[in-house]
């Protein structure tokens, strides 16, 4: 299993910036950014923008080439970099050149996504349905018993209601 906490700590040390990692649904898996706490969801408007990036790229004739969004605030920039599986959020100081920073963070996001996909495949196991099937069969048997249990009363009600 991927330890996203360690990855976020390492990114902070290497890139000298706070980071957060979210899955493709916007659930934050690990973070050291106060604005994006762990186990919360990326704000809906930002998530919608990320999800619509392909449509935006198409509208701009970019052929799905949007891999990052940057939002500038008065104090810092938020950089959202996405891969197929993950969203990497970076809180970058205003004095950092984003043109130099973005390719590095994009590579990190791609590598994390590849690791996550490999990890999912390694953890795949065959699911044993026998217990679930046995529960379903037991429930059906009880249903059949219950159905016949009150048949006399049902017949009586039908007879009276005629």
Cα-to-Cα separation, first versus last residue: 67 Å
- Major pleated sheet: 5 strands, antiparallel
CATH fold call of the largest domain = Beta-Lactamase
Strand count: 5
| Assembly of the depicted chains | single chain
Strand arrangement in the largest pleated sheet: 2-1-5-4-3
- Please tell me how large the radius of gyration is: 26 Å
Topology pattern, helix = H, strand = E: HEEHHEEEHHH
Give the uncertain stretches in residue-range form. none
Q: Provide the CATH superfamily of the largest domain.
A: Dynein light chain 2a, cytoplasmic
Please tell me the CATH architecture of the largest domain by its name: 2-Layer Sandwich
Query: CATH first level of the largest domain: which class?
Result: Alpha Beta
Strand content: 15-25%
Percent helix: 40-55%
Secondary-structure-derived class: alpha+beta
> What is the helix tally?
6
Quick tags:
single chain; 162 residues; alpha+beta; Beta-Lactamase; 2 domains; five-stranded antiparallel sheet; 5 strands; elongated
How does this structure look, described?
This protein is of the alpha+beta class. It folds into 2 domains: 119 residues, Beta-Lactamase, CATH 3.30.450.30; 32 residues. Helices cover 51% and strands 19% of the residues. It contains 6 helices and 5 strands. A hairpin with a 3-residue loop joins strand 3 and strand 4. The chain is elongated. The model has no long low-confidence stretch (mean pLDDT 80).
């Amino acid at each position: 299993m991927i330890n996203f906490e360690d990855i976020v700590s390492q990114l902070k040390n290497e890139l000298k910036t706070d980071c957060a990692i979210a899955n493709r649904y916007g659930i934050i898996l690990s973070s050291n950014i106060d604005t994006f706490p762990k186990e919360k969801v990326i704000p809906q408007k930002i998530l919608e923008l990320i999800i619509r990036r392909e449509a935006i790229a198409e509208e701009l004739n970019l052929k799905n080439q949007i891999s990052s969004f940057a939002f500038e605030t008065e104090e810092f920039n938020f950089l959202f970099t996405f891969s197929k599986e993950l969203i990497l959020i970076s809180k970058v100081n205003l004095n950092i050149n984003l043109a130099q920073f973005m390719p590095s963070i994009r590579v990190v996001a791609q590598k994390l996504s590849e690791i996550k996909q490999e990890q999912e495949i390694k953890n795949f196991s065959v699911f044993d349905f026998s217990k679930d099937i046995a529960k379903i069969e037991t429930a059906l048997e009880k249903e059949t018993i219950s159905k016949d249990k009150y048949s006399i009363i049902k017949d009586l009600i039908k007879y009276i209601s005629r």
